[in-house]
UniProtKB/TrEMBL annotation:
Record keywords: Coiled coil
Keyword Coiled coil: yes
Coiled-coil parts of chain: 303-375
Cellular component GO terms held in the UniProt record: endosome; lytic vacuole; protein-containing complex
Entry keyword annotation includes Coiled coil: yes
GO molecular function annotations of the record: SNARE binding
Protein name in the entry: Uncharacterized protein
InterPro entries, per the entry: UV_resistance/autophagy_Atg14 (IPR018791)
Amino acid sequence: MVSAILPSEFRCFRHITYVYARNLPIHATEAQVEGTCERRCPQQQPSHVSSYFVLSLTPSSSRGCPILNNSDEDRRFYISEVRSGTRHPVWRHIPLEIRKRFASLTRFVLSLYYYSACGTDPHPNPDTDFLLYEMLVETSHVQYVAPSMTKADSLPQLPYHVDSGPNSFVVFLRCADGIFFPLHQGMRAGDGVPSTVQVREGTAPLVTALGTSVASAVLPVSPRESRSGAVLRLIDGVESITLGDVKTCATGTLAWSYLSELATARREEQERLAYARAGKSYQTTSTAASRYALLESRLANVLKQQEQRIQEVHQLLNRCEEVRQSVSSQQQQLDVLEKVIHENEAHRVHAGAALKDREERLSALSTQLDEARRARLRELWELFPVHKEPTSVNDGEAVFTIGGHRLPYWSQTTGVTADLVREWSLALGCVAHVVSAIASLYGCTLPHPLLVCGAHSYVLRRPGLSAATVLSPGGGSSGEVRLPLHGTRASDRPAMAAAVQLLMTNVATLFNVIEEASISSGVTSVVETPESVRCLGDKLYRLSQVLQSPKGDHTVSRTRAPNTI
């Protein structure tokens, strides 16, 4: 069993806060006493239990107090409230002013009463109520039971019953350091009152200072009769006392004296030891205080450093949380970026495949277009064949014909008739038709648009003019807007020469389109000279040969005109 914190020799009344009782008897009945029936409840076996306790001073303590007499009523210093309907009463705590007033008290009398009056508002009256149990309590003579009453109730067995029976009642004292059991003992002989315990029928037997059981000698005392009178009444029957009883009383008295002397000596020895311990502890108080102050300062420094470390740890945790959130956000962004990259890569692959398919389709279409162009050109040269006649007009120069009509030769000055001029007009109309057809096949825009009207064709000087504007009456003079590629007289040759010069510019553009650099460069140089009209037949002949030769086919197949599929 765990020992109490406070040593028993230092315990006094100020340490007691509560009084508990357990297993109060229900069938306790009073002996019939004359003059007491009218002051008690008429039932002999009550169906419930109502109880309270009274604390009184011992006779030896009351002698030293001048304000108290030696009567029972004057020695009482506290009466508890009545607890009804329970065999295990828990009374209210002893008031603080009572404990302060009797703080140094080490011996007192505890009396347990049954409240026997009828009424809803009980008022305890020790003079008329039934006294169930009374004992002398010494604060240094108690035994530790448990730290709390709940633990004490939960113990499997309580060996502290009054009559050592399993159903007899028990009284406990609650102090600041636990629950204690007051060891049963009687009053000392020097107190003036023998140690008696009044017990009624059905309750615990009487315990005396001699350690003998006198349960058979029931004391039918009146509540107002003093205990001394009760003892005298018990001794009235002298004839019942034997010599053995006298010897027993003498032996008990002598033993009690020896025990009292031993107890007194023991108490004095304990007090000396206590004073010695107090002096020794006082000598070490200064050293302990200094050590305590040093330890307190060190503890304060350690606590302060610990608090700082805790704050730093919290800051690191917050920073780690921020970094973790940043890393998580960046990881999410990286995942999104990788997803976009994968999607773009897939789109690029898909677009590359689609572009490759489109290029293949375009290549096939380009091949078909080239074949169609070659077919159209062959048909065109079949309709307008260009031949070189060996007949020399002047100084061995060759004569070129297109569609059976001779191209003009401007160096010819003699033999120019109206029929020759009309033939030149037909030949230039065929040339204009061939140039327009080739430009249409390759999608080429001519710098000088052609107005093809057979033998009455024109070359527009200003680019971007529509045919309607050219043919309109208000389109301006012929020399200002359009130049004729035809004539009826020899006097029309200068205008025809200027028109042929513009026509040669269109032919040079076609050469650039079909990537004949050698021909186009030669044509460009010829166009810059006034005699460019003499080279028209030669250039048309070479162009027909190039377009009809395998090289021309290869050139045409490599050439992709703008604005074509």
